[in-house]
Each structure stands twice: as structure tokens, then as C-alpha cells.
Structure to design on (268 residues):
């Protein structure tokens, strides 16, 4: 089965150079599209569903890190389990340290044949392991989001700190809720429900924005619409249909884990 890839870089010459190098070291790779910015990269990934996306780490409008976060939120199904991310970067020392964790690979600008060959070998091995092991053995979505959060901080040290307070509507009043008190967030089309042990509140902020603002070491995403405080997880069980359900300390509600995130609780 051929591997399908997408390239995203705002510099045309860099796209052309990477395309030429990939043709040399991975001739059977099928390039299905080229994006000029992060927004296009997300849209094309959603539409074309490639196995692999090469993302320039710095692009105007939406950076490669921001695009990777959005791509990580795209819905998966039996036909498409998501894609591998490879960052294209002109920065080596401080950024590359984070890539060495192995969840995401990288290509240095300009793409040199020998270094690209090593990257390609690692990617092919990872894709082969994913196909043989199944979706449950893919890298943890939490590990991916944590790495992206770390990269965002390294690339922009002056960026805002993690969200510490939630300003939410409770009845007819506005309350300031400490983030660490939140048991879980659940979104619908318009609102996100904020649940603590004592109160239930609503905010107009989607899950994808919360992911960018919260400390993803504290909150795990277990569903497209659900984030749970890791300190509030009491246990994980399965229902009669085989779905994983998270029990929450201090609250009777059980939270469903979607298929994309079942790897968080391996062995359950």
C-alpha cells in the first residue's frame, strides 16, 4: 500500500526542494498536495486524509505547531487513523531536543539527503508498526499534545502562561473557577460545560481553544468534545458495548473515551 503525504510550507522554493529530495530518497511516496500555510494544511489534511504531513514549523497566520494541534483534533474512522507529523525547521538546537522524544520527527532546512534519509527510515518503520499493531498502539494523543505545548513554549518563550482561571456563567452570576478545581470539560456545538465537584457552569470556548490554553499534563483529552482532569480520574471500566468509560472522583457521571483515544488506557 502506497504512503500518501502532504507538504505545507509558505516558501515555494522550500516546497520544491523538499519535493525533489523526497523523490530521491522515497520515490514510491505519493505526494497528494502542497499547502502554503497552516490553515490550508489543516483543511487539506481533513479533505485528503494523508498518512504523513510535512509541516513548516513557522508559517504566517497559523504556525506549524498550531496546525499540528488542529490536525490532532480531526475525526478518525476505520479508514483513517490520523497521520504522522514531520516538522520542517530551520532551528536545530533548542527545538530538536523536543523532537528526539520520537513522537514527531523533523527535517532541517534546507533538506539534506542524508538527514532526510534517516527521517524517512524512521517514518516508514513507525507507519509499518502502526499498520501491524493497530490504532490502539499508536503514540498517545496526550503525549503528542504535551510535546506540541512544549514546542510552542520553546518557539515563543514570551507566550501566555497556562490558563489558571475559568470565567464561567453559573445561573445568573459570573464566577471565577480555579482550573485545578475543574473535574472535566464537555462541549456541544455552542457551549462548553465546566464541571467541578460543587458546581456546573457554561463557557463559550470550544475544546480546541482550551487545549491550546490549558496545561495538557493536567488535562487529558479522551474524546473530541471531552477533557478530563487527570487528578480526578478514579478509574476506567468498559460497558456492555466494549466502550471505555472514565469514572470521576466526586461526581457520578462517567465519561466515554472515543476510539481515537483508547490508547490512553492500554490494557483496560
Amino acid at each position: 500500500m502506497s504512503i500518501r503525504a502532504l507538504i505545507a510550507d509558505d516558501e515555494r522554493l522550500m516546497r520544491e526542494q523538499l519535493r525533489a529530495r523526497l523523490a530521491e530518497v522515497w520515490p514510491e511516496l505519493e505526494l497528494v498536495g502542497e499547502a502554503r500555510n497552516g490553515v490550508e494544511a489543516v483543511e487539506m489534511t481533513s479533505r485528503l486524509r494523508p498518512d504523513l504531513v510535512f509541516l513548516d514549523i513557522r508559517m504566517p497566520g497559523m504556525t506549524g505547531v498550531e496546525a499540528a494541534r488542529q490536525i490532532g483534533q480531526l475525526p478518525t474512522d476505520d479508514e483513517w487513523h490520523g497521520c504522522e507529523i514531520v516538522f520542517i525547521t530551520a532551528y536545530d538546537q533548542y527545538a530538536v531536543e523536543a523532537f528526539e522524544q520520537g513522537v514527531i520527527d523533523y527535517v532541517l532546512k534546507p533538506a539534506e539527503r542524508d538527514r532526510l534519509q534517516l527521517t524517512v527510515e524512521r517514518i516508514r518503520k513507525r507507519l509499518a508498526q502502526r499498520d501491524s499493531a493497530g490504532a490502539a498502539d499508536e503514540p498517545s494523543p496526550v503525549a503528542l499534545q504535551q510535546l506540541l505545548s512544549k514546542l510552542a513554549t520553546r518557539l515563543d518563550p514570551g507566550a501566555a502562561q497556562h490558563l489558571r482561571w475559568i470565567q464561567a456563567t453559573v445561573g445568573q452570576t459570573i464566577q471565577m473557577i480555579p482550573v485545578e478545581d475543574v473535574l472535566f470539560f464537555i462541549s456541544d456545538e455552542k457551549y462548553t460545560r465546566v464541571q467541578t465537584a460543587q458546581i456546573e457552569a457554561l463557557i463559550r470556548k470550544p475544546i480546541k481553544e482550551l487545549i491550546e490554553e490549558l496545561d495538557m499534563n493536567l488535562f487529558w483529552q479522551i474524546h473530541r468534545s471531552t477533557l478530563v482532569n487527570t487528578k480526578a480520574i478514579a478509574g476506567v471500566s468498559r460497558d456492555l458495548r466494549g466502550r471505555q468509560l472514565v469514572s470521576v472522583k466526586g461526581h457520578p457521571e462517567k465519561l466515554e473515551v472515543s476510539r481515537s483515544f483508547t490508547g490512553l488506557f492500554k490494557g483496560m
